[in-house]
Specification:
Helices cover about 25% and strands about 20% of the residues. With about 325 residues, it is an alpha+beta fold. Helix 2 packs across helix 5. The protein binds 2-oxoglutaric acid (AKG) and fe (ii) ion.
Length: about 325
C-alpha cells in the first residue's frame, strides 16, 4: 500500500536543453571572419526573439572566467558544510531590509537565511545564503551590461537605453547561493516554490545537478544543466520597462533524493533611485502601454516588502507595475 500522498511536483515534462541556447562567442572574438557589427546584430536579434518568447535563455561562451565561478561554488560549499550553529551566526532576520545600500547590516539579502513559506506554503527544502561576492558580481555586472545593450539594440532602441540609469556605477546587484540538500521525500516538497523574479535580470548558474523548472504552455519544463553556461531570465521590472516585450516567466526548483544541488542566482537592478521609463518606441497601436510609464526600483521594492509582511499575500506583484501611477 502506498502510504505517501500522490506525487504533486514530479509530473513535469523533462525535455533536456529545449530551452534555447545563445552563443556569445562572436561578441568576444571579433575577426575578419566575423564582421563585428553583423555578428553583433544577429546576436541581438536572436536574444530579443528568445526572450520575447521564453523569458529565459541559456548563454554559452559568455566570457565569465570559469575560475571565478568555481571559486564561488567552492566558497558556498565550504559554508553550507559548516555546522548549523556556525551558519546561524550569519543569519539575517526576514524583513530587516532597508533601502540604504550603504548599510549592509540592514540590507535585504545579506547573510544567511532560511525562509519558510515564501514562494510556497509548505516547508521548502532549501538552505540559503545571501552574500555579495565582489569578483563574481563584477564579472556578472559586465555580462549584465552587455546583455542590456544587446536587448536595446535588438529592440531597435539606442544601445544605452537600459544601461543609462546605471550612470557609470554598479546597480543594486546581489548574488544568492541556493543550496538544496538531498531530500528523502522529494515528491512531497519543493526546493523553491513557483515565482517570478521581481528584479530586472537574473543570471543563474546551476551545478551539474538539475532542478530548475520553467512554466511553459501549461507544463513545468526541466532545464538540464549545461556545462559552462548561465541561465538568464527576465524579471518583473524588465517586463514592465519593456512594456511587456520581454516576459517574466514563472519558475521553481525541485529537489531530489540522492544529490545536493547548488545554484547561484545573481539579481541585477539599477541603483535604487534611478528612474526606469518605458521607451516611447515600445508603445504603439499594437503594444499599448500596459505598465507604469516610469518607476524606480526602490519604490517597487518597498511595495514588495509591504506585501511580504502580509501573512498570505502574494510575494511578487506585477499588479503594482501595471498600475497607472508614475514617479
Ligand atoms: O535554484 C534554482 O534553480 C532557481 C533559483 C531561483 O529561481 C531564485 O533564486 O530566484
Ligand atoms: Fe527565481
Amino acid at each position: 500500500m502506498n502510504l505517501v500522498t500522490p506525487l504533486p511536483f514530479r509530473t513535469s515534462r523533462c525535455i533536456p536543453n529545449e530551452l534555447p541556447i545563445l552563443d556569445l562567442c562572436n561578441l568576444h572574438h571579433q575577426s575578419d571572419e566575423h564582421p563585428t557589427s553583423s555578428a553583433r546584430d544577429k546576436i541581438a536579434r536572436d536574444l530579443v526573439k528568445i526572450l520575447s518568447d521564453w523569458g529565459f535563455v541559456q548563454l554559452v561562451n559568455h566570457g565569465v572566467d570559469t575560475q571565478v565561478i568555481q571559486e564561488m561554488q567552492a566558497q558556498a560549499k565550504k559554508f553550507f558544510d559548516l555546522p548549523l550553529e556556525q551558519k546561524e551566526k550569519a543569519k539575517v532576520s526576514p524583513g530587516s531590509s532597508s533601502s540604504s545600500s550603504s548599510n549592509n547590516k540592514n540590507r535585504e539579502g545579506f547573510g544567511y537565511g532560511v525562509e519558510s513559506g515564501f514562494y510556497y506554503d509548505g516547508k521548502p527544502w532549501i538552505d540559503r545564503f545571501h552574500k555579495s561576492v565582489e569578483e563574481y558580481n563584477r564579472s556578472l555586472d559586465m555580462l549584465t551590461a552587455q546583455v542590456l545593450e544587446l536587448c536595446a539594440e535588438g529592440l531597435g532602441l539606442e544601445s544605452s537605453t537600459f544601461t543609462k540609469p546605471y550612470l557609470g556605477t554598479a546597480g543594486e546587484c546581489t548574488a544568492r547561493f541556493n543550496y538544496y540538500p538531498p531530500c528523502p521525500l522529494p515528491s512531497l516538497t519543493l526546493g523553491l516554490g513557483a515565482h517570478t523574479d521581481p528584479n530586472l535580470l537574473t543570471i543563474l548558474h546551476q551545478c551539474k545537478v538539475g532542478g530548475l523548472q520553467i512554466y511553459r504552455d501549461g507544463s513545468w519544463l526541466s532545464v538540464k544543466p549545461l556545462t559552462n553556461s548561465f541561465i538568464l531570465n527576465i524579471g518583473d521590472s524588465f517586463e514592465a520597462w519593456t512594456n511587456g516585450r520581454f516576459k517574466s516567466v514563472r519558475h521553481r526548483a525541485v529537489v531530489n533524493e540522492t544529490e545536493a544541488r547548488l545554484s547561484i542566482a545573481y539579481f541585477s537592478n539599477p541603483p535604487p533611485l534611478s528612474v526606469m521609463t518605458v521607451p516611447q518606441n515600445l508603445i504603439d497601436a499594437l503594444h499599448p502601454l500596459q505598465f507604469r510609464p516610469s518607476f524606480t526600483w526602490v519604490d517597487y521594492k518597498l511595495h514588495l516588502l509591504e506585501m511580504h509582511k502580509k501573512p498570505n499575500g502574494s510575494k511578487t506583484s506585477k499588479a503594482w507595475l501595471r498600475s497607472a501611477k508614475s514617479v
